[in-house]
Design goal:
- With 690 residues, this protein is α+β, with helices and mostly antiparallel strands.
- It is 43% helix and 17% strand.
- The chain contains 24 helices and 21 strands.
- The protein has a 6-stranded mixed beta sheet with strand order 3-4-2-1-5-6, sandwiched between helices. A 6-stranded mixed beta sheet has the order 11-10-7-8-9-12, sandwiched between helices. The chain has a 4-stranded antiparallel beta sheet with strand order 14-15-17-16.
- A hairpin with a 4-residue loop joins strand 8 and strand 9.
- Helix 11 packs across helix 21 and helix 16 runs antiparallel to helix 21.
- It is globular.
- It starts with 5 loop residues before the first helix and ends with a helix.
Amino acid sequence: MSKVTPVRQQYLDVKKQFPDAIVFFRLGDFYETFDEDAEITARELDIVLTSRNVSKSKRIPMAGVPHHAAEGYIARLIERGYHVAICEQVSDEPVNGLMPREVVRVVTPGTVTEPALLPQKRNNYLAAVAPLVQDGVLVRAGVAYADISTGEFAATELCEGDDILGLVQQEIARLAPRECLLPETFAESGALLLGGEEVHVSLLADWRFDAQTASSALERHFEVSTLDAFGLGDKPQALCAAGAVLQYLQETQRGSLDPLTTLATYTTGDYMVLDAATRRNLELTETLRGEASPTLLSAIDATVTAMGARLLRHWLHHPLRDRQLLAQRVGAIRALAEDSGLRAALAALLKSCADLERIAGRCALRSARPRDLSAMRDTLALLPETQALLGLDAPALVAIRAACAPLPQLHALLARAVREEPAAVLREGGVIAAGFDAELDELRALTEDAGAFLLDLEARERERTGIPSLKVEYNKVHGFYIEVTHAHVEKIPDDYRRRQTLKNAERYITPELKAFEDKALSARERALAREKLLFEQLLESIAPQVPQLLKTAAALAELDVLAGQAGRLATLDWVLPEFPESTGINIESGRHPVVEAQVDNFIPNDTLLSPTRQMLLITGPNMGGKSTYMRQTALIALLSCCGLPVPAKSAAIGPIDQIFTRIGASDDLAGGRSTFMVEMTETAAILRHA
């Protein structure tokens, strides 16, 4: 170990801290990976595997990617379930001859925040399950989830019934997290719990789910002395799960978690029960083949913002049992459907809105980019007009109007500080607007005056030397220079110093030009440093406004969903559901929302279920429409419980707490079960829960 180079020792120290992650180690303009990390990186990214000397007699594998293109490479590794620790050079001043480096964050499937790595129209949840096992039996479990890109953070506890594992499976299927944290001792059960390929499982030491550790972490983060206000007093396992999520985010983000402003607690009883098989068979957001369309979501999605698309997906996976809230959604859609001019105006405004939810999250993490701030500025400019348009008295729209209150001070700050069209990245400069900072304006003037100085110098030197083709120019490699063709070399003055020789010309520097070069290049570097400082100060100014920005983003997302559904109600032969208190389902001329869009002529059917007509037995030949009829009834009921329009002449949906379905036949070869046994097992599960 004593024979390795200092940089190698520095890398080994970092790798020791993050043994389970691929370490992207910054060396100059590249992120380098070494040893086994390099072999994995080269294989997964299909890049060249090279080697590097670390001592006189030893070479190690090495693979690197350019730092400016790293996002795309990291995305591919994350997609394959790897964790990536990003080790940056944290200072330009060497310490004992070595540049200081440290890991600034760890990117995992559930903790990404970069726009290029995130799916636009779905949340990127990190979830945790905290089980309580007594005598080998799972008796209680906490489930928590967070989306660091939007600030959503919630937890629940599952303790009812004899099938806690089944309840946990249902909740994980509802959330569809990208990554799920489990205790190591629960790993075997975890394999049963999370068999889907979409969920990346990260196993943590059991102490990470300790109640005392979790409580301390949450109290420190929210700066409170007790967690009673969060409703966790009677939910110890939910507390453990929430603590595990928070600590994992603190370790991976390596800094502030300002987007997580509160922790919401909920009960699964707030929502209809939909188990994983039901969600899969009803093809809510992906087909049985795993494709994005045709699905229920693709059939009804009329949103124009990414925020609205994510909210609509959330609603479909969280159908409500609260009839009052459903009535408010229906009332808002009805009010918007009656005013086509208002819908058109709102659609035009919403199309111009940026993804304020995720931009606010990146501002809280201090990772926002210049164009994030210009997009935020332009979106805030739309709030007064949006609020003015919402004069309707529907309760849901009144709440949205209040949440869309303008933020004039923040908008004025962004309007003064950020250029109309800033550069894509801060390192290029051209982000802060002229007139915002006198020192920056002065430094820019020094660099921008270079053109006039060079033209004046060129004219003077042509006159002094008598060389009509003399040129004064600049490039990033050689700086400023005077170029003279070989034909005029004999006219070169004594104060010219050769800088570069070309095939047909010579390039020179003079004391006057050198002095200007030092001044101009220094001014450019100082201008970039000043701009970086001002941008960081701007993010600090925005951070206290993040909670209000997230509320505004949530209101705009809800308005987008409601307006889109109102437009569909006005243009399609769909109706708004009714919610009688009596038990039953009464659908007149119901259709399947997805199949109807795929065929020329869909034949509608009625559905009537009541206390005296509790079961229907549907018979008919293959391809006769039995499954379609079953699915359309379930989908109409589900859409109703989301407060959305349904494809029917009328639909009266009484209280519903669960939907179960078993459609289609498949065997389970790995489990040694025939198609018939799979069907009987799942039918037994439906009957038991019903």
